[in-house]
Amino acid sequence: MNARAAFALLGAVLLALFVVGEVRRRAGPSAAGRRFFRHPPAAWGMFILTFFVAVALAAPWVAPYGPSITLEIVALKNQPPSLLHPLGTDLYSRDVWSRLVYGSRVSLSIGALAMLVAVTVGAVVGAVAGYVRRWVDTALMRLVDVGLAVPRIFLLLMAIALWEHLPLALLVLLIGLTGWFGTSRLVRAEVLTLRERDFVAAARAAGAGGPRIIFRHVLPNVAAPIIVSAALGIGNVMLLEAGLSFLGLGVPPPMPSWGNMIADGAAQLATAPWTTVFPGVAIALVVMALNAVGDALRDAFDPRRATA
Amino acid sequence: MSELLLRVRDLKTYFVTEQGGGTARAVDGVSFDLHAGETLGLVGESGCGKTVTSLSLLRLVPEPPGHILPGSFVELEGRNLLVLAPKELRAIRGNEMAMIFQEPMTSLNPVFTVGDQIAEAAIVHQRLGRRAARARAIEMLALVGIPDPETRVDSYPHQLSGGMRQRVMIAMALVCHPKVLIADEPTTALDVTIQAQILELLARLQTELGMAVILITHDLGIVAGTVDRVLVMYAGEVVETAATPELFARPLHPYTEGLLASVPRLDTPWPRRRLHSIPGQVPAATAWPSGCRFHPRCPYAWDRCVAEDPPLLDAGTGDPGSHGVRCWLLAEPARRTRQRPP
Asked: N or C, fewer C-beta in 10 Å, chain A?
């Protein structure tokens, strides 16, 4: 590990600390901010998330080597962690730390983008079903029932099996399109109560049409539960991506993702555990951080929960 | 008499209840006229159909379970609103006919600034741009007497008091200068001093903008102070209609009589008697009584009231149609034997 990488890493840590401190300073005094930071893991989770996002963005500086560079196929194969290679090297003499850093780009962006797709579809479907009611509601919700009844991993495996070389964008889309069912139910339930509220009647009396009411008046009121479910959902998507990559169906090698790093290292678990343990720890950390932040957000958005 | 704006004839709005309770005839044959600049008061107990009547005018009754029966007419300047296409109807809502809702606390969207909400109707109907809409919202806030409108326009509803929110609601309804304003108990959620301010504001705006107002209330004090003509509703029907002074001086329907007697007065002589109340309560809308719907609670009722439903009879003031009463007492005045309640 060279000085540049060390500095960049330090920079990422400081940035994450700064962001957490700044958020705490600004949001802390408000009631919602107090509820958020009442959870000790929330600040930690936020720190971990900002750290990994910073690392992912600054990957070329934080990583001493390229993600797929084989350094010295014989001499530097499966080296344990050392000063030069802080997380060791893998079977192909690639620097695990560098791969982990570049892998964060892939894993985090798949998680975030797939969740974005899922949340968008789920919110629109849920809002339309809940607002329009009648047969539209029935049709959409039966579709959701079907989607929830079929195990997601099999749905994905089936879809992925249709392509020989799956483009990443398609993988993201597929994960997103199999993950919106829960969100749509949540949103529909919220919309069902919101549509009876007086301000919706007031908007109708003012001459607003259906789409305008759904998207301008109703959906913004569901923002809080949507954000919470998205935060909790990203972790899930990342685990799913890791699982698919582990099965060799997700991110194609040599592009590193945390999932396929584990898959690559699985064979040497006994002799070179660092090749699997570190990406595993990274996944676990990020997923736990997302859950902590999601939980804290839920309390922050809902005053009733926090007092209980 | 000034120009006829709104003509409502035989308005019937029924609700089909799911639990086998049958059909609730919430509004059952209401007719009235509304002229430009006039204030019409709609009074009656809770459950008489006042709110459903007002919602029906804009076709805001949730369908299902509700539906407005064919044969009903709501004519705004010659156009029957009940047969308009949804798009044409939206062009009227909030533009030519607007509504102020009962609850200022819940009728504002919590996630938008009041400025955005006031401007909404103007954006929808007049296609105003962002800046023009904001300017209009500020102008409206000033019009309804909110101090410091330039900063208040960016407030969220929870940052305002009840009276302020009600003013915002009024501003929302008036932003397109509607010809008809429906105010559904605009002051019930407010305390008395604010009530007076809001009513004064409404009266002032009405003279400034020359609109017609339908004021729904169960507060006869408000009626006496602000309304030109009163429609007393009971059990989905208009039971008495008259100009306000006439109604207060000569209430002819026993229900109106009862309502007026139920108002506490400061000038009752000592020793005071217990405040009058109409016995019983409004029956369920799924099972209106036979004959005259008020007969189970009426102190004068006799067998004819049970058997026959009275039409709206003319009280004979010399001006036909100016004072109508749905009561058989008009046909048989001698039956008004019991002393009027105090």
From this structure: C
Q: Tell me, what's the pLDDT at A308?
A: 39
pLDDT band at A300 (very low <50, low <70, confident <90, very high): confident
Instruction: Give the global pTM.
Output: 0.73
Residues pairing with B217 in the sheet: B43
Cα angle, residue B103 at apex, residues A186 and A190 outer, rounded to 5°: 0
When divided into structural domains, chain A yields a total of 1
Q: What residue of B is the nearest CA neighbor of A194? A: B109
In a domain, A161, yes or no: yes
Contact (Cβ atoms closer than 8 angstroms) between residue A157 and residue A249: yes
**pLDDT tens string B266-289:** 776 666 677 777 877 787 878 888
- Measure CB to CB from residue A198 to each of B86, B93, B107 and give the nearest one: B107
Residue A272: inside a domain: yes
- The number of angstroms, rounded, from the C-alpha of B104 to the middle of its chain's C-alpha atoms is 16
B94·A207 Cβ contact <8 A:
yes
CB-based contact B12:B61 (threshold 8 Å): no
Closest residue to B60, CB basis, from A199, A201, A209: A201
B315, B325 contact by CB (below 8 A): yes
Whether residue B340 has pLDDT greater than 60: no
Calpha distance B153→B115 (Å, rounded): 4
Determine the structural domain holding residue A243 and report its residue range.
Answer: 3-72+83-305
Local confidence band at A207 (pLDDT 50, 70, 90 cut-offs): confident
Q: How far apart are CA B193 and CA B242, in angstroms?
A: 28
Q: Shortest Cα distance from B52 to chain A (angstroms)?
A: 13
Residue A287: inside a domain? yes
- Can you give the CATH number for the domain in which A203 is found? 1.10.3720.10
Q: How far apart are CA B36 and CA B31, in angstroms?
A: 17
Collect all residues of chain A within an 8 Å Cβ-Cβ radius of residue B101.
198, 201-202, 205
Three-class DSSP category at B338: coil
**B57 vs A contacts (CB less than 8 Å):** none
CA distance A120 to chain B (A): 19
B13 three-state secondary structure: strand
Element (H, E) at A17: helix A3-27
Question: Which of chain A's residues have a Cβ under 8 Å away from the Cβ of B178?
Answer: none
What are the φ/ψ torsions at residue B260 (nearest 5 degrees)?
-65, -35
Q: Is the pLDDT of residue A201 over 70?
A: yes
- Whose CA is closest to A251, among A120, A111, A65? A111
Q: Residue B192: count other Cβ atoms within 10 Å of its Cβ.
A: 9
**Residue range B316-320: average pLDDT?**
73
ipTM: 0.73
| Cβ neighbours for A22, distance < 8 A, ≥ 6 positions apart | none
Sequence-distant (6+) residues with CB within 8 A of B185 are B102, B216, B217, B218
DSSP B155-200: --GGGS-HHHHHHHHHHHHHTT--SEEEEESTTTTS-HHHHHHHHH
**Residue B126 sits at the chain A interface (C-beta within 8 Å):** no
Long-range contacts of B218-226 (CB under 8 A, 24+ apart): B218/B43, B218/B44, B218/B45, B218/B46, B218/B50, B218/B185, B219/B187, B219/B188, B220/B43, B220/B259, B220/B260, B220/B263, B221/B263, B222/B41, B222/B187, B222/B195, B223/B41, B223/B43, B224/B248, B225/B199, B226/B39, B226/B41, B226/B199, B226/B202
Report yes or no on A77 lying in a domain: no
Judge contact between B66 and B14, C-beta under 8 A: yes
